[in-house]
Amino acid sequence: MLTSNALKPLPDITDQTRPFWAAAKQRRLVLQKCARCATFNFHPKPWCIECGSRKLAWTDARPFGTVYSFTISRAVAMNLSGWQAELPVLMCLIDLDDGARMYGQVTDCTPEALRIGMRVEVHFEDISDEAAIPKFRPAKQPC
Amino acid sequence: MRSEVAIVGIGRTPYSRAKPGEPKLTVDEYIAWAADLALQHAGMDKTDFDGQGLGVSHAEVAHTVNWSAATAENLGISPQILLRADQGGASASAMLIRAAALIKAGIVDRVLVVGADTPLNIPSAAPGLPLSPERTRGVYWDFQGPFGVMGATAQFALVLTRYMHQYGVTPEQLGKIAVTTRFHASLNPGAIYRTPMSLDDYLSSRLLSDPIRLLDCVPIVNGGLAYIVTSAKTARTLCDKPVFLRGFGEANNYYHGGSRALPDITHTGFVEAAPQAFAMAGVTPKDIQFFEPYDDYPFIALMSIEDWGFCKKGEGGRFVEEHNLRFDGDFPLSTDGGQLSGGQPGGAIGGFMPLVEAVTQLRGEGGARQVPNARLGASCGFGGIPYGRPGRSCVSLILSNED
């Protein structure tokens, strides 16, 4: 079933994380939002890392962010060889507009153009029948 | 205040790159070898630890998971207390703090602390993920691997890029750390890479994950290390060169800048751990004669220098440039060649090396790399890579051959 992606790691989808992957399949970015203090938590947490509330609700997040940091990965290391075809991988830490930080690959951008502070927008790539991952590309307009 | 515990013996096995024809020892074989060396160093016997303490660091790769009680069984030691640390490269230093507390409380008098890993004994030739389930399964990995994160080099490169954005550091400054530690490795028969290299060698090595280049990256080896800690009273009866734990500090899961969601990732937990250690020891950074960071990358050594307070934040590059980092210089750094040129027996066990080298120096057993008149030194434990940040666990140790 997943042979097309056998050379890339796939997530173990659990009841905890299924909403994230399922929403991504529907081209929606959802994060756990704390019902008590409104913090967006990412990656998925067992309770809010700010206030400790277990009332975390999967909530649509704005699909825009800013590059907080980046690296140009030029070799596949500690990952699976399916990434080889995409080298160099522009791997970033993205500060989402809703206040969470995530690892994200930036596409449609040259290594030379990538910079801290760059505005980016989410797009999605299917990685299995059950999951898609968010990736980012330079935002078309300042948002 | 007189120190209440001391290290009386250390052991570090020869390291192996597991080349064809070399025997592939198991974790327990390396543990026994390292423990044997430490026991000989201390003039003790394994039976001295029956009814006492045994500390076992976790190994990190998937095929080497070890439980502390199983290690006790395999060594034929029957300890009263077992310690097991799972703090990656902070494990060895963290167990020294735990052991000191047990000894100070009078629960035990002595603790043998061991660790080994065999990351190069990968059971199959398949490429991919030789790390433990903790690193490659569960939420932590599910939200990294599929996203394209290429392991520690990429994770630390992201921290370095941000650091360069906020503060600036040049490749030449980071290269000076790599070149100096290689020089130290050339003086250490136990180091893996002993051929001196030049700054040009460093600068011309290829970029793996910008701005981290090949010669920024720690080489993996198989090996084991051990140390023995006792009450100060027992230490004085055992040897004439005990190394006293003068101060310690620890910070786990440190966030800098007030936000857990969007922290400033350019600071490590040493910001909190080091002041604890200095206050306990009653000394200041300028009293420290040599510094043994957890140096899996030169940049980690540089951040550690800053966050311990040897210079102001952001001035680490200039500090490195302006100081002589050699064993006979004014700021001796990674005097055994560190992990960068010495080799890293898995990220967790590499954390024994700064501590073991600090003890070596304070016993005057550094040979060709001996820091002159070494009396007071500092070493680091640094372990685990949290999501999007550097260093889950930071341990600061201040050690002296004077109590």
Description:
- The complex is a heterodimer of chains A (143) and B (403).
- Chain A has one domain (15-138).
- Chain A is 6% helix and 35% strand.
- Chain A has one helix at 18-25, and strands spanning 30-34, 40-41, 56-60, 64-73, 89-96, 101-105, 119-126, 132-138.
- In chain A, strands 6-5-4-7-8 form a 5-stranded antiparallel sheet.
- By secondary structure, chain B is α/β, with parallel strands linked by helices.
- Chain B has 2 domains: 5-125 and 222-238, Peroxisomal Thiolase, Chain A, domain 1, CATH 3.40.47; 150-219 and 246-400, Peroxisomal Thiolase, Chain A, domain 1 (3-Layer(aba) Sandwich).
- In chain B, the strands form 2 sheets. In chain B, strands 3-2-4-7-1-8-11-10-9 form a 9-stranded mixed sheet, sandwiched between helices. A two-stranded antiparallel ribbon of chain B has the order 5-6.
- The N and C termini of chain B lie close together (8 Å).
- Mean pLDDT of chain B is 94; it is low at 124-128.
- Classes of the chains: A mainly beta (143), B alpha/beta (403).
- At the A-B interface, strand 2, strand 4, strand 5 and strand 6 of A face helix 5, helix 6 and strand 5 of B.
- Strand 4 of chain A pairs antiparallel with strand 5 (207-210) of chain B.
Return the string of H and E elements of chain A. Answer: HEEEEEEEE
Number of E-state strands of chain A: 8
Assembly state (oligomeric): heterodimer
What is the H/E string of chain B? EHEHEHEHHHHHEEEHEHEHHHHEE
Main sheet: strand order of chain A: 6-5-4-7-8
CATH architecture descriptor of the largest domain in chain B: 3-Layer(aba) Sandwich
CATH class of the largest domain in chain B: Alpha Beta
Largest protein-protein interface: A-B, 48 and 42 residues
For this structure, the CATH topology of the largest domain in chain B is Peroxisomal Thiolase, Chain A, domain 1
| Number of individual domains of chain A | 1
Quick one: biggest sheet of chain A? 5 strands, antiparallel
Gap from first CA to last CA of chain A: 39 Å
Q: Label the structural class of chain B.
A: alpha/beta
- Count of strand segments of chain B: 11
Average pLDDT of chain B: 94
- What is the number of helices of chain A? 1
Number of helices of chain B: 14
Provide the low-confidence segments of chain A as ranges: none
Q: Find the structural class of chain A using helix and strand composition.
A: mainly beta
Main pleated-sheet profile of chain B:
9 strands, mixed
